[in-house]
Write a structure and sequence with these properties.
Blueprint: H1 2-14, H2 38-47, H3 59-72, H4 85-94, H5 96-113, H6 115-132, H7 156-202, E1 211-212, E2 227-228, H8 230-250, H9 253-272, H10 275-285, H11 287-304, H12 309-350, E3 359-361, E4 365-369, E5 373-376, E6 386-390, E7 394-397, E8 401-405, H13 412-419, E9 424-427, E10 430-433, E11 438-441, E12 450-451, H14 452-457, H15 464-473, H16 477-481, E13 490-491, H17 500-513, E14 518-522, H18 530-544, E15 549-554, H19 557-561, E16 565-568, H20 573-577, E17 586-590, E18 595-597
Parallel strand pairs: 3-10, 6-17, 8-15, 8-16, 11-14, 14-15
Antiparallel strand pairs: 1-2, 4-7, 4-10, 5-6, 5-9, 12-13, 16-18
Helix pairs in contact: 3-4, 3-7, 4-12, 5-7, 5-9, 6-7, 6-12, 7-8, 8-12, 9-10, 9-12, 10-11, 15-18
Length: 601
Amino acid sequence: MWSHTRWVFSMMLFSWAPPTPDTIKKDEEDEADYTDTEEEYQKEDASSFKGMLSDWQKAEPLGLQLSQCWHESSGHSGKAQVRGRRLAFSLLQCLRSGLVLGGLIELVAMLTAAIPPIILRWLLVALADSTTNPDPATSSSTQDAHKPHIIRISHSYTLVAIMAVTQMAAGILINASRYRLEGVGAQAKAALTYMIMDKAFLAPSSSSAINVIRSPHDRNKDGPEQTWNSGTVFNLASVEASRIEDCISGINAIWTVPASFLLAIPMLATNVDASSLGGMVILLLGLPVFTRVALRIWNEQKALSVPDPAKAFSSFALFLALKPHVNRAAQAAVQLQDLLVGCRAIEMWLETEEPHQMRTISADWAVDVAQNTILSWPARSSADDFHLSFNTQAQIMNGELVAICGRPGSGKSSLMHAIASQMCLETGSFELGIGSKAALASQTPWIRQGTIRSNITFDHKFDEARYWKVISSCALMDDLERMPRRDLTVVGAGGQGLSSGQAQRVNIARAIYSDADIVLVDDCLRNLDPSTSKTVFEYGLCGLAKDRTRFVATNQAWVARQSNLKTISHPSWEKNLWKTPQPNNRKLSLPPGGLQRKPLL
């Protein structure tokens, strides 16, 4: 019986909230029932969340909708536009339905909260009437005939019940409104984070900076350029987006509070006639002023006459009901300023120019670099530039195995990142094949928290036959056999639980398992013992990945001997490095004759 009653109350009080997923805590003895297929486990884990998020709660649809509103508003921006307004108006246009719905619910809650003071007046009038005129037959015929709202004392219990119900309804409505507006704020944060990170992924990444550029509004202004490093962009996606989230959830009070006052004035006028207008004006001027003026007026009226208790208590209760909303209106005014501040910071990032993208060429070539092409990392300042220059044309055909040789610090990694489209094109032409995708295995293995299988498949479709071939070609089979759950063993972020060699082989296996047309291995073989590195090279790079274009950065001679094409750094580059006018302005030059083709041994 109690369970059914509890279900009814739960539906009454929480019907406005979305469903929540059921969480199941598994005991240790149930560990044996753990599925051996990670794909099935992920499906079972995701089934509890199926249907939990609608389109208006997902980041991608929200981000695309906000991006559309942002681009549509670009044609309406004038020269004298205040920075931040464009993004603010785009947000309001994108989220207007949720804001209006939450505001209407809040407005109804405010009006519902104003009903109990009116009922209180009726109760006090009925109580006074029953005290002065016990005979109900004469109560409405003589001195109380001018009171049209006299209620019989027998109806008092009904009025008390109505007061309780309206007060409860007001609480439910205000919570529903706040929940809805909090959801709108979360939508704003998700959409802004999507736009910020989407633009950040378009820019080349480095350990120093993402971009150093001015927005179109500031291009002709004097002063230092705005530096956008990774920390600054992350600050936008976390701090500024959270600031806007908090502001969006409470900004509706700017229009709901005045609207509720306009609707509450007639209710108050029925109590104290036209004098209620003065009270509303005083209330709007501010609570400190209202307190001092109200005390003075109270003392003067008390000295002149004794007020009607029904009018006094009901009016006072109505003012108390409206008092919290006045505080929210003051907070909303402050939040509006914070909203513009956050929008101004994010808008500066969204209006920066995007870096030059690598163009695509025909399917015959994997990479085609024109002579005198210069690439650069996005630098923190003009005095800390790194340039990658090509003094000759370089063309790499599809399916070739290219060895990039050179001493440590000679720029091998920069060339690998340039092929991965992670450097800015300054001059010249650096073109990739049509539809080419590159998979980069960097010197420092990138391992996320999860199973070894998830770190290799990396959200690609699981092909069991192909997967185990990659495991075998990267010499991981023996290592997995020694692990408690084989490839379903969970490892920590950064490769915690794996040795450096194991993490490096997982890194290479992910690049080979991917469907990328270009595989980039940035000096990963040096961390492996000779026999293991030869196994990975022969069975992985020259075996499973033989039909793809492969670039291997290495300083090992045996790798260069087995490559179709080897690229060697300029012999005099290191000698002339410290003789340049700016020691920090380093250039990697590939001179004529630096590209030597050899048959595959």
